[in-house]
Amino acid sequence: MELAAEVFALLVAVAFLAGTVDAMAGGGGLLTIPAMLAAGLPPVPALATGKLMSTLGTGSAVIAYARAGHVNLRAFAGPVAAAFGGSAAGAITVQHIDPTFLAALVPLLLIAMALYFWLAPPMGDVDRKARLGRVGLSAVCGLIGFYDGFFGPGTGSFLTLALVALGGLGLVRAIANTKLINLATNLSALAAMIAGGHVLWVLGLAMAAANVAGNQLGAFLAIRHGGRGVRPLLVVVSLAMTARLLADPANPLWQLWPG
Description:
single chain, mainly alpha, 76% helix, membrane, transmembrane
């Protein structure tokens, strides 16, 4: 598929902005997927190309956080493996089950998450006592991974919430290890998209290069400013994703609204 030069350049610029936001709070797909659809890409190639971009961008964010000492691969090997398997299972399941009910549930979950980050006591960079052990946290990450393969929006934010509220991590470390787990879910989904031949490689690699640069900037800002800058951004991103989902007149929630 050929795109006009100015459209191609605009998508690359959006990928950079999305990478910056994604490295700090998740939700980069909120920018890139609508932009690609608006440019005329069919839904499946847009999602597949977005997975290529986000896989490379998220991988670069993991490297940046790891260099700063915020990623613990050994401690999170279980959650990573569970999320990878869950994402693969979700991608298979969605081919046989209508995910419409999730379109109604997810906006409510995102609003609840925004309220948690807004109203919860101050979150520093110091870890606290975990409410779940490794097995329990792996099970939660496996479920979120399944959700990512099955539906997707808000996965990074849900993982961050789980690591903060249940895993006891400080906010920056939670985001850093969220990137590690999210990389596993992206790799699983990308493998399925490549096998199906849906990835637009030229556009995807160009957007990935910009997304990598954006992720490096976002990781730098998160590490430098810590929870002070990240927490408000998590609230804004969660509410923006909610608005984006509810903007669709076909969202099942509108069918439940009186009148």
